[in-house]
Amino acid sequence: MSEEKVHGTTQESELKNSDGPNKFATSVGYLLTRSNPERAVGEAIDQLISERQHWENHELANSNETLYALLQHCYSLNNAMSGSDFTAKALRKGLANYIQQKGYQFKESSPLITKIVKCVFGVNRRRVNAYSSALRVAIAERVAVMNLPKFFKDKGGIEEVRRQATTGKAKTMKDKVELGRAVLESNVLAKIQSDTLNKNFSNDSLEEGVVLLATREDDGSFAIRRVVQSNAAVKSALAACASVGQDKEKAKQFEDEQRAIEAERLAVQAALKAA
């Protein structure tokens, strides 16, 4: 299911000039940095829908360049929403409002990028699955927004990238442990000092951490039942915290993307002033 098969195109060619709307004249980056990010989501998606419709009606048969640009903006939207700050939360709320307004239905497990792709490209399940799968591969590989079109081209197109979503190797235990080590540098939840705990701690088994096996009591406290210093148990605990490392990497990527969005916004402003 390549771009050609999904859309009926016969080849990838350079984008031809058309008499349609000026492509992405209002950039997603500009929309998302306005004062009302919650409202900006709907405006950004409507802009992308307009560009998608124009692409389908005028350029679909001879170009994938605009498709890659559309997916690039979807990717940028996803990154802008993938954070825990006020703007990201407001953007996600705005997307939820937009989805409710359009009457779309999603499973709770549906990835954010799938929701964005469906909003932009409509309810064609085959198309949405192909595009969102390819973009999830890009997300997993931490491809920068600006490099997304080149990423698709270098990989041989949407279909070749999409296949990685089903045939790509799952993270090994070692990979998960490496990601989980980020939790050892995270905020301290509580400090406990006890002679009994120290007596149960063995200096002969010094790992990078210990596992405190605890139960939650009826009064809301946590009762530590055992100090576990098994290397396998510690690694299993770290692997279970792999999402912490992934979130840390995603946060860094988000910060980089935000800087890129801000740079784009400033460039647009500078261009407007110079005009």
Task: Give a short synopsis of this structure.
This protein is 60% helix and 5% strand.
Describe the structure in your own words:
The chain has helices at 3-7, 28-32, 37-59, 65-81, 86-102, 112-121, 125-140, 148-154, 158-167, 173-180, 195-199, 231-240, 242-274, and strands spanning 211-216, 222-228. The radius of gyration is 24 Å and the shape is elongated. With 275 residues, the protein is mostly helical. The two termini are 44 Å apart. Helices cover 60% and strands 5% of the residues. A two-stranded antiparallel sheet has the order 1-2. Mean pLDDT is 77; it is low at 4-26. It has 2 domains: 3-168, no CATH class; 174-240, no CATH class. The chain contains 13 helices and 2 strands, in the order H-H-H-H-H-H-H-H-H-H-H-E-E-H-H.
Task: Give a topology summary.
Layout: H1 3-7, H2 28-32, H3 37-59, H4 65-81, H5 86-102, H6 112-121, H7 125-140, H8 148-154, H9 158-167, H10 173-180, H11 195-199, E1 211-216, E2 222-228, H12 231-240, H13 242-274
Antiparallel strand pairs: 1-2
Gyration radius, to the nearest Å?
A: 24 Å
Overall mean pLDDT: 77
Number of domains: 2
What's the quaternary structure here?
single chain
How is the biggest beta sheet arranged?
2 strands, antiparallel
Report the count of strand segments.
Answer: 2
pLDDT below 50 for ≥5 consecutive residues: which ranges?
Answer: 4-26
Strand content: under 5%
Q: Quick one: overall form?
A: elongated
Percent helix among the residues? 55-70%
Distance between the termini: 44 Å
Global structural class: mainly alpha
Number of helices: 13
Strand order across the biggest sheet? 1-2
Please write the string of helix (H) and strand (E) elements. HHHHHHHHHHHEEHH
